[in-house]
Design brief:
By secondary structure, the chain is an alpha/beta fold. The chain contains 12 helices and 11 strands. The strands form 3 sheets. A 7-stranded parallel β-sheet has the order 3-2-1-4-5-6-9, sandwiched between helices.
Length: 279
Amino acid sequence: MKTILVLGGTGTTGRRIARRLTAAGHPVRTAARTGGDVRLDLADPATFPPALVGVGAAYLVEPDVRTGPDRRERIPRLVAEAVGAGVRRLVLLSAHGVGRAGEDHPLKAVERAVRESGVDWTVIQPGWFAQNFSESSWLPAVRSGVLAVPVGDGRTPFVDAEDIAAVAVAALTEERHSGQTYQVTGPRAVGFGEAVALISAAVGRTVRHLDVDPVAFAERMTAEGGVPAEVARRLTDLLVDIREGRGPEVSDGVERALGRPARPFERFVTEAAAAGHWA
């Protein structure tokens, strides 16, 4: 068997994918700027060839959502290098709504490069990750007891990263997913107030959601969190989409890919609490 390359192999989805592939007996190589089996920096094409030696399939993710030709061309450049090196299957982690977005969306060109690569491809378009509450941007706020985000009473079908990983593994190892675009979400829309109430019940202390002004939220991300202004605005706009009912709708991508329902948010909360994420 040829090696499966997992880009972002130390990240939220990548490490789950690598773990599942390894458990199933597939040869796996994780790639990241630091901490992976091999160094791969999307900004440095010289790191591509060593990572691609002996690779038959690759999981791709673009971690930088800023616009500009230098960002839009990074994955397409890697795709061309991978196909030239003999990779014959590509699985891309994209994002909700890219298909309806304008050409300025940073992932539009990325999706096009994968679809036009000439090899087997699958595109995964997830909604908001449930793990944002437990492993990522919202974790410090949840631990503090107040999650302040500009979503109002909006609801969204949070998708468990375990489901994303399962879909990606299936697409990397099974032929039937070639040419498929899977929109993956949780099984129902959940409001942020309900989400933190479920977390509160699981950890035995109060966590509440506080609605905030979108402009102030974006400015605070930049001023206090060091988030580039363009990224802060893009992320804030996505949260405002939830507030105004334009966010992801429940989709059947997980069930189409795996033949089972998506994992409910309640299961994520139970498992995250048991793992001590909010301790």
